[in-house]
Specification:
single chain, mainly alpha, 15 helices
Length: 339
Protein backbone atom coordinates (compact mmCIF):
# COMPACT_ATOMS: atom_id res chain seq x y z
CA UNK A 1 0.00 0.00 0.00
CA UNK A 2 1.32 3.45 -0.93
CA UNK A 3 2.24 5.48 2.13
CA UNK A 4 1.32 9.14 2.32
CA UNK A 5 4.07 11.58 3.12
CA UNK A 6 3.30 12.79 6.69
CA UNK A 7 4.32 16.36 5.78
CA UNK A 8 1.93 16.42 2.83
CA UNK A 9 -0.77 14.86 4.99
CA UNK A 10 -0.32 17.58 7.63
CA UNK A 11 -0.34 20.31 5.01
CA UNK A 12 -3.52 18.88 3.51
CA UNK A 13 -5.13 18.74 6.96
CA UNK A 14 -4.23 22.39 7.54
CA UNK A 15 -5.38 23.30 4.01
CA UNK A 16 -1.97 24.69 3.03
CA UNK A 17 0.24 24.17 0.00
CA UNK A 18 4.05 24.21 0.29
CA UNK A 19 4.04 27.75 -1.18
CA UNK A 20 1.47 28.83 1.41
CA UNK A 21 3.56 27.36 4.21
CA UNK A 22 6.64 29.23 2.98
CA UNK A 23 4.63 32.47 2.87
CA UNK A 24 3.50 31.88 6.47
CA UNK A 25 7.07 31.29 7.62
CA UNK A 26 8.09 34.58 5.98
CA UNK A 27 5.24 36.38 7.77
CA UNK A 28 6.26 34.90 11.12
CA UNK A 29 9.91 35.99 10.81
CA UNK A 30 9.19 39.37 9.17
CA UNK A 31 9.03 41.40 12.44
CA UNK A 32 12.51 40.12 13.30
CA UNK A 33 14.05 41.49 10.08
CA UNK A 34 15.00 45.18 9.69
CA UNK A 35 13.32 47.46 8.76
CA UNK A 36 10.13 45.53 9.57
CA UNK A 37 11.07 45.42 13.25
CA UNK A 38 10.21 49.12 13.57
CA UNK A 39 7.05 49.61 15.61
CA UNK A 40 5.19 51.63 12.97
CA UNK A 41 5.81 48.92 10.35
CA UNK A 42 4.66 46.24 12.78
CA UNK A 43 1.45 48.26 13.17
CA UNK A 44 1.06 48.12 9.39
CA UNK A 45 1.61 44.36 9.51
CA UNK A 46 -1.11 44.03 12.15
CA UNK A 47 -3.53 46.04 10.01
CA UNK A 48 -2.69 43.85 7.02
CA UNK A 49 -3.18 40.61 8.99
CA UNK A 50 -6.53 41.87 10.32
CA UNK A 51 -7.75 42.89 6.85
CA UNK A 52 -6.50 39.55 5.51
CA UNK A 53 -8.53 37.62 8.09
CA UNK A 54 -11.62 39.77 7.47
CA UNK A 55 -11.23 39.30 3.69
CA UNK A 56 -11.21 35.51 4.14
CA UNK A 57 -14.39 35.63 6.28
CA UNK A 58 -16.02 38.02 3.78
CA UNK A 59 -15.05 35.86 0.79
CA UNK A 60 -16.57 32.84 2.54
CA UNK A 61 -19.97 34.45 1.90
CA UNK A 62 -19.41 36.55 -1.22
CA UNK A 63 -17.37 33.92 -3.03
CA UNK A 64 -19.44 30.84 -2.24
CA UNK A 65 -23.11 31.74 -1.78
CA UNK A 66 -22.87 34.90 -3.91
CA UNK A 67 -24.13 37.29 -1.21
CA UNK A 68 -22.22 40.54 -0.65
CA UNK A 69 -22.65 41.49 3.01
CA UNK A 70 -22.40 45.29 2.93
CA UNK A 71 -23.03 45.32 6.69
CA UNK A 72 -19.89 43.26 7.34
CA UNK A 73 -17.93 46.06 9.03
CA UNK A 74 -20.91 46.82 11.27
CA UNK A 75 -21.01 43.19 12.39
CA UNK A 76 -17.29 43.39 13.13
CA UNK A 77 -17.91 46.58 15.10
CA UNK A 78 -20.69 44.88 17.05
CA UNK A 79 -18.22 42.20 18.17
CA UNK A 80 -15.77 44.91 19.19
CA UNK A 81 -18.34 46.92 21.15
CA UNK A 82 -19.67 43.79 22.86
CA UNK A 83 -16.23 42.76 24.06
CA UNK A 84 -15.36 46.32 25.09
CA UNK A 85 -18.59 46.87 27.06
CA UNK A 86 -18.30 43.54 28.86
CA UNK A 87 -14.70 44.33 29.78
CA UNK A 88 -15.29 47.94 30.85
CA UNK A 89 -18.69 47.64 32.55
CA UNK A 90 -18.64 44.08 33.91
CA UNK A 91 -14.92 43.46 34.27
CA UNK A 92 -14.98 40.40 32.01
CA UNK A 93 -11.59 39.35 30.66
CA UNK A 94 -11.14 40.48 27.03
CA UNK A 95 -10.40 36.90 25.96
CA UNK A 96 -13.91 35.84 26.97
CA UNK A 97 -15.30 39.13 25.72
CA UNK A 98 -14.00 38.37 22.22
CA UNK A 99 -15.85 35.04 22.28
CA UNK A 100 -19.00 36.77 23.54
CA UNK A 101 -18.67 39.28 20.70
CA UNK A 102 -18.42 36.42 18.20
CA UNK A 103 -21.54 34.75 19.64
CA UNK A 104 -23.60 37.96 19.56
CA UNK A 105 -22.41 38.70 16.03
CA UNK A 106 -23.39 35.16 15.03
CA UNK A 107 -26.84 35.60 16.56
CA UNK A 108 -27.41 38.93 14.82
CA UNK A 109 -26.05 37.46 11.60
CA UNK A 110 -28.60 34.66 11.92
CA UNK A 111 -31.43 37.16 12.48
CA UNK A 112 -30.31 39.30 9.54
CA UNK A 113 -30.00 36.15 7.44
CA UNK A 114 -33.54 35.00 8.28
CA UNK A 115 -34.86 38.36 7.14
CA UNK A 116 -32.64 39.00 4.11
CA UNK A 117 -31.52 35.69 2.64
CA UNK A 118 -34.94 34.80 1.26
CA UNK A 119 -34.30 37.68 -1.15
CA UNK A 120 -31.95 37.34 -4.09
CA UNK A 121 -28.97 39.15 -5.52
CA UNK A 122 -28.76 42.86 -4.84
CA UNK A 123 -31.83 42.83 -2.56
CA UNK A 124 -30.09 40.69 0.07
CA UNK A 125 -26.96 42.86 -0.15
CA UNK A 126 -28.95 46.10 0.26
CA UNK A 127 -30.94 44.74 3.20
CA UNK A 128 -27.70 43.67 4.92
CA UNK A 129 -26.34 47.17 4.27
CA UNK A 130 -29.43 48.74 5.90
CA UNK A 131 -28.92 46.62 9.01
CA UNK A 132 -25.29 47.76 9.09
CA UNK A 133 -26.36 51.41 8.88
CA UNK A 134 -28.86 50.82 11.69
CA UNK A 135 -26.13 49.32 13.90
CA UNK A 136 -23.86 52.26 13.21
CA UNK A 137 -26.70 54.65 14.06
CA UNK A 138 -27.32 52.89 17.37
CA UNK A 139 -23.61 53.01 18.24
CA UNK A 140 -23.62 56.75 17.50
CA UNK A 141 -26.80 57.65 19.41
CA UNK A 142 -26.45 55.38 22.48
CA UNK A 143 -23.88 57.65 24.11
CA UNK A 144 -24.73 56.33 27.58
CA UNK A 145 -23.45 52.91 26.51
CA UNK A 146 -20.93 53.45 23.72
CA UNK A 147 -19.94 57.14 24.25
CA UNK A 148 -20.81 57.60 20.57
CA UNK A 149 -18.45 59.80 18.52
CA UNK A 150 -16.50 60.65 21.69
CA UNK A 151 -14.95 57.20 21.57
CA UNK A 152 -14.95 54.39 24.08
CA UNK A 153 -11.72 53.60 25.90
CA UNK A 154 -10.91 49.88 25.90
CA UNK A 155 -8.34 47.87 27.84
CA UNK A 156 -5.65 46.34 25.65
CA UNK A 157 -4.94 42.60 25.61
CA UNK A 158 -1.28 42.79 26.65
CA UNK A 159 0.41 45.03 29.18
CA UNK A 160 3.20 46.06 26.84
CA UNK A 161 3.96 48.92 24.49
CA UNK A 162 5.33 46.50 21.91
CA UNK A 163 3.13 45.58 18.96
CA UNK A 164 4.84 42.25 18.35
CA UNK A 165 2.50 40.12 20.56
CA UNK A 166 -0.52 41.63 18.80
CA UNK A 167 0.95 40.82 15.41
CA UNK A 168 1.52 37.16 16.21
CA UNK A 169 -1.93 36.87 17.81
CA UNK A 170 -3.59 38.44 14.77
CA UNK A 171 -1.59 36.18 12.46
CA UNK A 172 -2.76 33.10 14.38
CA UNK A 173 -6.36 34.37 14.23
CA UNK A 174 -6.00 34.83 10.48
CA UNK A 175 -4.80 31.23 10.13
CA UNK A 176 -7.70 29.95 12.28
CA UNK A 177 -10.25 31.88 10.19
CA UNK A 178 -8.77 30.49 6.97
CA UNK A 179 -8.66 26.88 8.22
CA UNK A 180 -12.25 27.02 9.55
CA UNK A 181 -13.58 28.44 6.27
CA UNK A 182 -11.51 26.05 4.15
CA UNK A 183 -12.60 23.02 6.15
CA UNK A 184 -16.23 24.02 5.66
CA UNK A 185 -15.79 24.33 1.90
CA UNK A 186 -14.27 20.82 1.72
CA UNK A 187 -17.37 19.16 3.23
CA UNK A 188 -20.69 18.30 1.62
CA UNK A 189 -21.90 21.58 3.06
CA UNK A 190 -19.21 23.33 1.03
CA UNK A 191 -20.44 21.62 -2.13
CA UNK A 192 -23.91 22.95 -1.34
CA UNK A 193 -22.47 26.47 -0.92
CA UNK A 194 -20.79 26.27 -4.33
CA UNK A 195 -23.91 24.89 -6.00
CA UNK A 196 -26.05 27.69 -4.54
CA UNK A 197 -23.53 30.33 -5.59
CA UNK A 198 -23.37 29.04 -9.17
CA UNK A 199 -27.06 28.40 -9.78
CA UNK A 200 -29.53 28.54 -6.93
CA UNK A 201 -32.46 27.12 -8.92
CA UNK A 202 -30.41 24.16 -10.12
CA UNK A 203 -29.25 23.56 -6.54
CA UNK A 204 -32.87 23.66 -5.34
CA UNK A 205 -33.95 21.10 -7.92
CA UNK A 206 -31.07 18.87 -6.71
CA UNK A 207 -32.63 18.76 -3.25
CA UNK A 208 -30.54 21.49 -1.61
CA UNK A 209 -32.35 23.94 0.67
CA UNK A 210 -30.75 27.30 -0.31
CA UNK A 211 -32.07 29.28 2.67
CA UNK A 212 -30.75 26.72 5.19
CA UNK A 213 -27.23 26.59 3.75
CA UNK A 214 -27.08 30.34 3.16
CA UNK A 215 -28.03 30.89 6.81
CA UNK A 216 -25.23 28.60 8.00
CA UNK A 217 -22.70 30.34 5.79
CA UNK A 218 -23.84 33.86 6.71
CA UNK A 219 -23.96 33.11 10.44
CA UNK A 220 -20.45 31.62 10.52
CA UNK A 221 -19.03 34.53 8.52
CA UNK A 222 -20.60 37.02 10.96
CA UNK A 223 -19.27 35.06 13.95
CA UNK A 224 -15.73 35.27 12.60
CA UNK A 225 -16.18 39.00 11.91
CA UNK A 226 -17.35 39.56 15.50
CA UNK A 227 -14.37 37.63 16.87
CA UNK A 228 -11.95 39.74 14.83
CA UNK A 229 -13.82 42.86 15.91
CA UNK A 230 -13.03 41.97 19.52
CA UNK A 231 -9.34 41.87 18.64
CA UNK A 232 -9.68 45.25 16.88
CA UNK A 233 -11.17 46.82 20.00
CA UNK A 234 -8.56 45.50 22.41
CA UNK A 235 -5.66 46.26 20.10
CA UNK A 236 -6.45 49.86 19.17
CA UNK A 237 -7.77 50.63 22.67
CA UNK A 238 -10.53 52.94 21.48
CA UNK A 239 -13.78 52.41 19.59
CA UNK A 240 -15.84 54.92 17.62
CA UNK A 241 -18.85 54.26 15.35
CA UNK A 242 -16.59 54.90 12.33
CA UNK A 243 -15.38 51.32 12.62
CA UNK A 244 -18.85 50.30 11.36
CA UNK A 245 -18.77 52.61 8.34
CA UNK A 246 -19.52 51.16 4.91
CA UNK A 247 -16.10 52.35 3.68
CA UNK A 248 -14.52 49.71 5.95
CA UNK A 249 -16.63 47.05 4.25
CA UNK A 250 -15.60 48.38 0.83
CA UNK A 251 -11.94 48.09 1.82
CA UNK A 252 -12.42 44.46 2.85
CA UNK A 253 -14.47 43.74 -0.28
CA UNK A 254 -11.79 45.22 -2.53
CA UNK A 255 -9.06 43.09 -0.97
CA UNK A 256 -11.19 39.93 -1.23
CA UNK A 257 -12.12 40.54 -4.86
CA UNK A 258 -8.65 41.63 -5.99
CA UNK A 259 -7.26 38.53 -4.26
CA UNK A 260 -9.69 36.29 -6.11
CA UNK A 261 -13.32 35.72 -5.32
CA UNK A 262 -14.03 32.23 -4.00
CA UNK A 263 -10.36 31.42 -3.37
CA UNK A 264 -10.21 32.36 0.36
CA UNK A 265 -6.41 32.54 0.30
CA UNK A 266 -6.22 35.18 -2.43
CA UNK A 267 -7.49 38.01 -0.26
CA UNK A 268 -5.11 37.05 2.54
CA UNK A 269 -2.18 37.00 0.09
CA UNK A 270 -2.77 40.43 -1.43
CA UNK A 271 -3.72 42.11 1.87
CA UNK A 272 -0.12 42.55 3.01
CA UNK A 273 1.36 44.30 -0.06
CA UNK A 274 -1.83 46.30 -0.63
CA UNK A 275 -2.19 47.54 2.94
CA UNK A 276 1.46 48.56 2.92
CA UNK A 277 0.97 50.40 -0.37
CA UNK A 278 -2.19 52.15 0.86
CA UNK A 279 -0.54 53.15 4.15
CA UNK A 280 2.33 54.67 2.18
CA UNK A 281 -0.18 56.60 0.04
CA UNK A 282 -2.11 57.71 3.12
CA UNK A 283 1.01 58.89 4.98
CA UNK A 284 2.65 60.52 1.97
CA UNK A 285 -0.49 62.25 0.67
CA UNK A 286 -2.25 63.06 3.93
CA UNK A 287 -3.71 66.21 2.34
CA UNK A 288 -5.81 63.98 0.05
CA UNK A 289 -8.06 62.01 2.44
CA UNK A 290 -9.90 59.07 0.89
CA UNK A 291 -7.38 58.66 -1.95
CA UNK A 292 -6.64 55.10 -0.81
CA UNK A 293 -10.30 54.15 -1.28
CA UNK A 294 -10.26 55.69 -4.77
CA UNK A 295 -7.22 53.59 -5.64
CA UNK A 296 -8.96 50.49 -4.27
CA UNK A 297 -11.92 51.21 -6.52
CA UNK A 298 -9.77 51.71 -9.61
CA UNK A 299 -7.82 48.51 -8.97
CA UNK A 300 -11.05 46.62 -8.37
CA UNK A 301 -12.50 47.84 -11.67
CA UNK A 302 -9.33 46.88 -13.56
CA UNK A 303 -9.29 43.41 -11.99
CA UNK A 304 -12.98 42.80 -12.70
CA UNK A 305 -12.56 43.84 -16.36
CA UNK A 306 -9.22 42.25 -17.26
CA UNK A 307 -8.75 39.43 -14.76
CA UNK A 308 -11.99 38.43 -12.94
CA UNK A 309 -10.18 35.57 -11.20
CA UNK A 310 -8.03 38.06 -9.31
CA UNK A 311 -4.58 37.27 -7.98
CA UNK A 312 -5.53 33.66 -7.14
CA UNK A 313 -6.69 33.06 -10.72
CA UNK A 314 -3.53 34.64 -12.11
CA UNK A 315 -1.31 32.57 -9.79
CA UNK A 316 -3.09 29.30 -10.58
CA UNK A 317 -2.90 29.93 -14.33
CA UNK A 318 0.77 30.88 -14.20
CA UNK A 319 1.59 27.87 -12.02
CA UNK A 320 -0.25 25.50 -14.36
CA UNK A 321 1.49 26.89 -17.46
CA UNK A 322 4.91 26.72 -15.78
CA UNK A 323 4.24 23.13 -14.69
CA UNK A 324 3.13 22.13 -18.19
CA UNK A 325 6.20 23.74 -19.78
CA UNK A 326 8.52 22.06 -17.29
CA UNK A 327 6.84 18.69 -17.93
CA UNK A 328 7.07 19.20 -21.70
CA UNK A 329 10.75 20.14 -21.45
CA UNK A 330 11.47 17.08 -19.31
CA UNK A 331 9.63 14.71 -21.67
CA UNK A 332 11.32 16.19 -24.75
CA UNK A 333 14.73 15.81 -23.07
CA UNK A 334 13.98 12.21 -22.12
CA UNK A 335 12.81 11.44 -25.66
CA UNK A 336 15.96 12.99 -27.18
CA UNK A 337 18.16 10.96 -24.81
CA UNK A 338 16.35 7.78 -25.75
CA UNK A 339 16.98 8.42 -29.44
Amino acid sequence: MEQTNPVNKLLDLLCFTPAGLIALVVLFVLPLIPPFNDEYLIRWLISAALIAALAVAFDFTAGFINIVNFGFAAIMGLGGYTSAILAERLGLTPWLGMIAGALLAAFLGFVIGVITLRSRGIFAAVLAWFFGLALMGLATKMIWLTRGPLGMRVDRLFETQSNVPYYYLCLVMMIVVYIVCKWCTRTKMGLAFKAIGQNMEAARTSGINPVFYRLINFTLSCALAGWLGGFYAHYYGILTPDVMHTSKTVEILAVAYIGGRGSLWGGAAVAFPFIFAMELVRSSLSNLPGLNLLLYGLLLILVMIYYPGGFAGFFNTAFRKTKNKAMSYFLNGAYASAK
